[in-house]
Amino acid sequence: MLPAYYAMLDEIGDVLRDLAAETPPNLGDGIHGLLRGARQGTRLALLSRERKRDLLDLFTKSARDFLDGWFESDAVKASFGFDAVVGNFASPDSPGSAYVLLHHTFGEVNGKKGAWGHAIGGMGAITQAMAKACEALGVEILLDAPVEAVHVEHGKDGPRATGVQLVDGRQIMAPIVSSNLNPALLYGKLIAPSALPAAFTKAIKGYKNGSGTFRMNVALSELPDFTCLPGKVSAEHHQCGIVISPSLDYMDEAYRDAKAFGISKKPIVEMLIPSTLDPTLAPPGQHVASLFCQQFAWDLPNGRSWDDEREAAADLIIDTVNDWAPNFKASVLGRMILSPTDLERKFGLINGDIMHGHMSLDQLWAARPVLGHASHRGPLKGLYMCGAGCHPGGGVSGNPGRNAAREILRDKDFTTALKLSVVGR
Hints:
single chain, Guanine Nucleotide Dissociation Inhibitor, domain 2
């Protein structure tokens, strides 16, 4: 069944990958929105009847129910099922979790579908390359310049974003403001409620956040020596994603623990060791590893605080890895911990949500972030959304920003054409 499963993911993934690069149809856009919806719907309509059934299953079923229809091996189902809980505070038994599994197949590197690449030099190398490209065009980049509020002016055509005010009091005015913040942060904290329609404010307050993620980076004196694949010399498995989550039941238990106690007794851990591919990241003979862990509730019960619990949670994660690689704990030279609270404080990820909002059916495509505002435009003219809180959601794809840029250029061209028309009269 494995070749057939991959063929199914490739065929459906091709269609959804194309849709991810398009702005979704927006409720209230009239004929333009209807035509956009019809054009995108045609791609789905061209799928075979069998693939349409598969697509319906992926959108509506739990990961377990979906994988049970394809495989018998618990180990195989666990391997694929892990993608259903990555950055997703849910059980593999939760309805809709099969879609999250599909979402993680969208990756494509150098024409290889379903793959996610490593940037030589670390993720910072990507932003540095972007910065160089912007500076070559004369763009000024400000760092250490936190924004306190979006400046809004009320004109004849309604409220419009006209710039931002920084925490230090400076104002930067501009005809276009583009934000890659979580929509709940943008509209909940940086814009005065009086500038927004009440219905929109209500919808944003209902926007769901929280991915159950705990991140940790560690410096290692040597590579992990796994009992199932012994050896501390760099091997193929050290260069892959190493997932500690042996069954769907294990994943379900981790989620139920986090719901009840805030922290999983047996967390799900994915380890990546990028220094096995990129020697610039660590001194000779040493390594760095990232630990991407689930499930950890952002709101701990009984008044407990992540500031008090973060070190114990980190110890638990290291002990979990050590159960599978007995040299791991002793090899840790240092660690950087990012609890859900740390992720919110450091990166503005509301409730520690790395996806900028749940990847559930009610917050996807034309409903991301909320129905009626899926085209990267909110209720304020001149303000655009370009982050993962927009279609197609989380994952380092660049699609939200690309799609938003296209819509900004369309609006700019339309405004220019309208002005020329008025002058021509």
